[in-house]
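Standup, Tuesday
Yesterday: got the pipeline producing structure tokens again.
Today: sanity-check two examples.
Blockers: none.

Example 1:
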Amino acid sequence: MSAESALDRLDLRFRRLASAARLVDVTYDLAESPLGVLLVAATERGLCRVSFQGEEALDELASTFGRRVLRLPGGLDQARRQLDEYFAGRRQAFHLALDVAVRSSFQARVLAALARVPYGELTTYGRLASSLGRPSAAR
């Protein structure tokens, strides 16, 4: 057994124990996709962020959800699996708990409206904002 693999196992054990003891505000991992590397993050309530910014999004996660942000490989397997299925064309809808608690009421309405856009249909930010009565909200 190499010292590196023993350290890796110890590190992963620490991360899992910290998460299980609820000492972590946000867990995240990185996922490969056809569009590049995605940061996938979750709170105990559910998925809170999928970002193309990778680890550059960590400061925003910490300021939004809490300072205790920890990478937990394997901790977001369900979200990663559904993303893989989506990009492979085998999934058209996601079935994941979401954490939208820190979003404004308008942002929550936008996410709900976005979830109603059928698979394969295209819409714009402007059209979505207009349908919610806030056409100037699209930037």
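Example 2:
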Amino acid sequence: MTTETQVNFLRPIDREGLLKFAEAGRANPERRGTNKVKTVMQGVFRSWSFVGVHNPVVVDEPPHLMGENSAPAPGEIVLSALGGCLGVGITAVATLREVKLSKLEIHLEGDIGNSAAWGADGAERTPDQMGFQAIRVKVDIQGDATKEELDDIVTHANYFSPVANSMRNPIAFEIST
């Protein structure tokens, strides 16, 4: 008697749609979209960020930072955006290469400090001394490909990740009132 292991694959994306999207990028490499978010403070450090027609993204701070811990902290939301972007990229590259994924989990952690107390009379810090100082990502991936092929998919997706590259590279930033 033989036993068969059944593998359940993750729900795939539309490969033809992906190929059309890629062709549009080749046809116009300078093409850009604009993401828009409106953030409204609710009191203490809790905020709601409105993104399109979706429910608001709720952000708070933990009690040791005078928040109420009612939602993830801003830095955790940043890591979640990175994890989401890497997940999208890994899925897209796997789809392009016709690799079916059965598991994709992305574990992220980042070292961040706030000794400047958001500029409210904390330690004297310069911008390069604040924010994330290190981010570690561990990808747990399985699919119908070799470990080497899966590793290459992850490496390739990381290289082309818009959010990862926004974090790695300086970007133009302006703020006004």
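Quick observation on example 2: The chain is about 30% helix and 25% strand. The longest strand covers residues 101-113.
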